[in-house]
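User: I'm writing a tutorial on reading structure tokens. Could you give me a worked example: one chain, its sequence, then its tokens, then a sentence or two explaining what the tokens reveal?
Assistant: Sure. Here is the example chain.
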Amino acid sequence: MFIFISGEERSGKSYYAEKRLSELSGSPKIYIAAAKIYDDEMRERVKNHQEMRKDKGFITIECPCNLGSVKIPKDSAVLIESLTLWTANEMFTDDGIKPCNYVISKIYHDFMNIFERSCNIILVADDIFSDGVKYGSETEKYIRLLAEMHIKFASIADEVIECVSGLYIAYKK
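And here are its predicted structure tokens:
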């Protein structure tokens, strides 16, 4: 089963995703964290997420990009957090900005490598599309790319869930 969970920042996505992963079959339960820590705010957010996961039996793998190379045992239950960070990490590299088609293909291929080895997988993504702010061209390109990724993953997911203020709305079940 593949569950795609989206919602705004601090909407309850992580809590819901961890709860759902705990309920699903599959062992071990693996949490793939795609965050890169750039500043104190991000360090604090990662620390809070780690504290939330403590004592839940997850194996955490920190991997900001190239997720397809993560070795997971067959029939694992996997939570990937988050598509938003993963996409940024694959797009904006030390070598420059990667083309959108490359990023889409790479992430999809990497995801499918994990999906094929897992019995259940949850992918968490941030909804960054409704703030109404105009950004520079590179950021706008990233936002459009991320929107394409949301559509692609929602189309293949068994369940699509939106988190809003701690409420969970199922669009596809």
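What the tokens reveal: Residues 137-156 form the longest helix (20 residues). The CA atoms of residues 34 and 64 lie 4 Å apart.
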